[in-house]
Amino acid sequence: MPANGTNDLSKSSIVRSASVSSTLPTDSTKLHSPPIGTASVSSEIKQLSDAKQADDSHSSAALQRKADLLQSILDSLADGLAAVDQTGRFTQFNPAGEQILGRGIAEGQVPDLSEAYGLFLPDGQTQFPHDELPLIRAMWGFRSRDVEMIVRNESIPEGRWLKVTAAPVKDERGGLAGGVVLFRDNTATKQMQQTLAAERLYLRHLIAVQDRDRTLTAYDLHDGIVQLMTGALLRLEACNARDVAQADAKHEDVTTATQLLRDALEEARRLVGGLSPPVIDELGVVGAIDYLVANHEAKDGLEIEFTHQLEARRFPAVVESTIFRIVQEALNNVVRHAATKRAAVKLEQRDQQLSLTVRDWGCGFEIGNRKAKRYGLRGIEERTRLLNGTIRIESETGRGTSIDIVLPTNPTPYDTNET
Predict the structure, then answer these.
(1) How far is Cα 116 from Cα 139, in angstroms, rounded to an integer?
(2) What is the pTM of this model?
(3) CA dist., res. 148 & res. 130, Å (int)
(4) Which residues contact 254 (CB under 8 A, 6 or more apart)?
């Protein structure tokens, strides 16, 4: 039994050994194959790597498309756009900017953009300070909006108005990374504004001219028709006061009054027609003053010394008329108020100015006590002011009066000092 048992055990062991052996690989290379599951992990890694590369490629393509779209938008802008980094180097400069400024991108760091591009303050003469340029201020963190300036250089000799807006550029941490500026050609708008402003100024001038004309008409009435009619009235009153035995004197008064009324009628016709005094048209300002002097000497017994030294024979009508009226009123004042028979008139030209002096040696008056309603002197002052001239009146009790006036030979027809 034992022997048989032993044999059976041996057989059994041999069988099991053979069975186990039969399950082992017979090819020695298979002993080095990776463990079960490693191949699938490698495959997953490869798939993830390929997917990441595909995603990166897709993202890069998307970013490139966005960058191309942004550049296309910048290139199509009608307004100029430029950007600089924190060192002042240009990082962006679109075609419209080059067209508007007349120059392209400046390479490297530019020490003075105003000088490089020809940028000026709105006065057109003063160069725009470099440190105050909107783009430079943007690099320092300041915003600028609708700043006006002029660009003028070899490409734009006539100059061009710009309206400029700028803002700082910040990085992902919020720090300053540079600046960006947007600018447009504002010349057409500026010219339109200037045209409208000129038209508004012209309308104001028209109103001023109308007021001036009304004022001058009032002085013309006072200095012309009123004076002539007053003289005629005095003559008629004198005639009425004479007795019958003074027939010759009465005849003279009536004759003089008639002539004065004729002169008043002629003056009225001149005012209605808007003409200068007829004697000026015929004789010029010197001849017209000669006429006044002769008339006062014959009618009022004045002794008037008239001297003149002029480079031109004629001047603008408004100048000649003003001088004539001033001399006329000044001599009338001598007759009415000075209580003297001696007077002098001097008219000289000094380059582009006319100097007029009317002097008497009468009773004079205190300048500070001049009557407010003395329209004669007020009229002389106003006529001088309306032609942008200057006047000085000097008078002293018992020593006479002197009126000194300077007028431009070609004055502006109205005050242009308004801004």
Answers:
(1) 18
(2) 0.41
(3) 14
(4) 235, 236, 239
